[in-house]
Structure formats: structure tokens, C-alpha cells
Amino acid sequence: MDKRYAQKDITGFEKRVAELGARKKAITKKCIVNAGLLKAGKSTLFNALLGERVFESDVIRATVKNQKREAEGYFLLDTPGLDANAQDTKEALTAYAKADAIVFVHNLQEGEFNQVEIDSIEQIGSLYGDKKAFFQKTILALSHKDQVEEEYPDICRRIEEQCEGSIKGHFCKIVCVDPAGYLKGVDEDKELLKKASGIPELKEALRTCILNGVDLQSGRLQKEKGELIEEIDDAIAGLEKEIPKGPEISSAAIDRASKDMKKRADKVIKEINDTVKLPLSRTSSGWDRYKCFGREKDYKEYRSEWDARSAGKAVIEASIRSIAKAVRGDAMDIVSSAEDCISFEKKPKGIQDRLSDAYEEIRHTALNAGVTISTNFTVVLRDPEKASDGEKSSVYRISRSELEKAHQELSYVRDRARNIDTADFSSATRYAEKESYNLYIDYDIRTEWVKGLFGERMKDVEKYHFDAGGAIDDISFDASDIVDDIYSRAQEAVESAFYQIKRDLTGQFKELTDKMLAEMAEKKEKAEKQEQEIQRKAQAIQDQIARLERCRQAAAGL
């Protein structure tokens, strides 16, 4: 808050309003103030107006403080000279601010106005805001005329030119005065001296000046009131700008975000627990995959059934070798997949990625509420061998014995998969003879030119073909059974450890989200305190504005 709008400044405004009110009530008698340079004859002139020597006067500087005396229905306020020093000038200016009429005394022995007098007239006139009002209430008293009888007309002409040019204003009355002659007339009871002194003329001019035209004191009060109201308005406007609008992040927004974050976290954990099964992968789950590694038919023609059958068995034998190789590769892939499910070097497929995505979703929920979460994603597979004492005590820790058991059983499965060969299948003869359609021999009879002892001749010839599709199907079924067995054994080997890992990862995620929610709770508490502080500051400023508005109303009513 700006210093000028502090409590003490509001108190200052209130005091100024009270002072203006007191001054307004105190305006019962008009106040006449003299002005002019040092030794212009101001004090002597006011003594003449009083008809007695009240104000001190001398050839040296006598008046250093404003002095007030009551005269015929008004007050006379004698002031120090304007050209003595800065302190005297400051003292005199405080008197001009209280004047209902001013008598500006000029010593004709000095000639026309000098620059100090011109500047002083300008400065005194500025106290009233309206320079015209100043001249309507200011009488120019020319003293020491008897000392410049010959130069008097010329001096008066030059002063008039200065009023037209430099000063840009005309005094309401110009009177030549001889205060010393008036006092001598008083002392000697000589009416002619008093009348010739110009003092009676000055008194009449003062009465006219005070009664007619603007009221200088009321005008000054109105001017000061306007300035004071303007300052109060500025203070109110400044305070209104200082009213805090509210925190960047509201506690209500943080609370809503926290509830949404918890709901999202619980949903993700439930989803993983309910839907994520052991992600053991396999190339295919059906026998038809392995058919492509065999060859069912041979479109070559054979001259005898035996030749066709022999060729068919050779194809079945080759298919057994190809399919056995494919099964061995698939089985080893299954074992590798099972190892990945419980590996600390590789993440379980799907779980950690899903948790990482969920973390980002939850973090963005906080960001949307304006809160930056500093808790980092820390969900990782934790090797029991490398766990700290604190981690070992966690309820979500993976059992080392369960993990060792899984690796041991998986080792057996790996050996079984590595050793898959043609011996795991039946012989080609058995596959060929298992069913009549396993190795089907077909023939047709054609008429062809055949070379003989007596040359070429047309002859009916038998042509044989084979179809080993049934045998290949049986081999593929057996292959699928072998792979299913490897899959089941691998799944059984790692299933328990995997679900412990899943429970550990989701447990870590819960711990992580609990930390995030705790961080949100801290942010909420901080926001609530900030809101309370803002509310307190806003109320304090509103109270100050209310005081200033009451102060303004009081000033406006003056």
C-alpha cells in the first residue's frame, strides 16, 4: 500500500476537514492584512488605522512575526517584509491566506515596483486561485509621497504601465497615504493633518472593499475544500487499486482437483487390478499357423503308386522338421515373454506405461486447477535383493522366495522349449498312415506316345499324385499342443510372481498419488491462508476507504 494512504494520512485528512470546519465557524470578523517590502511603512500604516502606536515600527527590521489587532469591526494583521529573508516571507504568506482584504504598501521613494514586488504580487494572487478576486480585494497604498513630489506623476504612470503589462491586473483602489502625518494629527488633535494623510480615504476604501465583491476567506475555504476533496478522491482511487482481487489459485479449485485426482487414481488401480492379466505373449494360439511350414501337395506326376507314396512321406518328413523348428522358436519366445513379465530390467507390459499415463493425467488435473505438482513419477520394478530396509518392510514388496521359485520353474520350461525337436512328433510313416486321407494317392490314365522296339505308338499310361494335407494337419495339431503346453507351464511358473509385481506397482502408484494428494492438501492450506490474508487486507483497505468517504462527505458539507 502506498505510504500516503496509511492510517496516519487518513487521520491527517480528518484533521484538515476539522480545521476547515473550525475556520468556517470562526469567520465572524473580516481580516485586513498588509503586504509589502521591508521598511515600506506597513506597521506605521496599520498604527494609523488604529489611531495609536500598537504595532512596532523602526528604521530597522522590527516586525518578524504576524501580529493581529482588532479595529473598528475588523482585524488588522501586520506582517514581516517580503524581501527580508525566507523565514519572514513564509510567515507573511500564512497571513495572506487569512485575508479578507489586503493593503499592499509601496514606498514611492523606490520608484515603480521592483521585480521582488512583482513576483510577490503574483505569488500572493496565486493563493486565491482567481487572480481577479485578489485584485478586487487588494488596495495599493502609496507611502512617502511627500518625499517624491516632483517625480510622483511619473512614478504613478510607470506603476500603471506595470499593472497593464507585468502584473496584468488592477488594484481595486490606489490611495496615497501619510501614516506618520495622521499619527501626528492624532497626537496634536489636528483634523487637517489627519484628513490630508489619506488615512480616512483608505478606511472608506477598506469598508467598501470588504463589503463588496467576493468573500476572500470563503473563497479560500472553498478552494482548499476542493483541493482537499480532490486529494481524498485520489487517496480513495489509490486504495481501490490496492484491494487484492483474490489468490491466483483458489482453495475450492484445489479441493475439486484433489477429489478428481483421487477418483482418477482409484479408477486406474481398480482397472489394472481387474483387467490386467498375465501378459504372456505367443505368436499364435492355433494349429493353422504351422500348416504354412508344411507342403500338402506335389503336382509332380509319378509313374507308380510306390513312387508317389515315397515322395509324400519325404514331404511329411520335411514338414515335421520345419514345424518342429517353428515350434521351438515360438516356445522360446513364450519363455522370453514370461521372463520379461518378472524382469527388473524390463517393465511388465502395459502396467507401468498405464500408470505413467495415469500420473500425467492426474498431474494435468492439478495443472488445470493452477497447481504444479513437484512429486515425480517413481513407480519402478523393485528388486528385492537391492531393496533398502524401509522398502523391504513395504506391504507391497515382492517376495524374494516367490521370485526365485518363478525363475527356477521357468528355467525348466526354457530347457524344455530349447530341446524341442522332431522327436516330439510321430514318425512320417505314422502320420502318413494314421488316416486314409493323411497321405492320399490319386492317379489318372492318359494316352501318350510311347517309344518301343517297333517305334512309337499310342498307349494308355497311369499317372500318380499325392496329397499330404491330412498328415500336415495332424503335425500342426501336435505342434499347437506342444506350444500350448509350453505356454501353460510358463504361465504357471511366473503367474504368482507377476501378480505380486502387479500388486507392488499399483501399491507404489497409490503411495505416489497419496504424496500428490498430500502436496495438494498443503497447497490448499496455503491457499486458504492466502485467501484469509487477502480478505483481511481487503477488509482493512475497505475500512480505510469508508473512513475516507466519510471524511469526503464531511468536507463536501462545509
Report what the structure shows.
- A hairpin with a 2-residue loop joins strand 2 (67-71) and strand 3 (74-78).
- Helix 1 (7-26) packs antiparallel against helix 10 (216-242) and helix 2 packs parallel to helix 7 (179-188).
- This protein has 18 helices and nine strands.
- Helices cover 59% and strands 12% of the residues.
- With 558 residues, it is of the alpha/beta class.
- The strands form two sheets. It has a six-stranded mixed β-sheet, with helices on both faces. A three-stranded antiparallel β-sheet has the order 7-9-8, with helices on one face.
- It has helices spanning 7-26, 42-50, 86-96, 115-126, 131-136, 152-167, 179-188, 191-196, 199-211, 216-242, 251-275, 288-291, 305-341, 351-368, 389-392, 400-418, 428-433, 469-556; strands at 30-36, 67-71, 74-78, 101-107, 138-143, 173-177, 297-302, 440-452, 455-467.
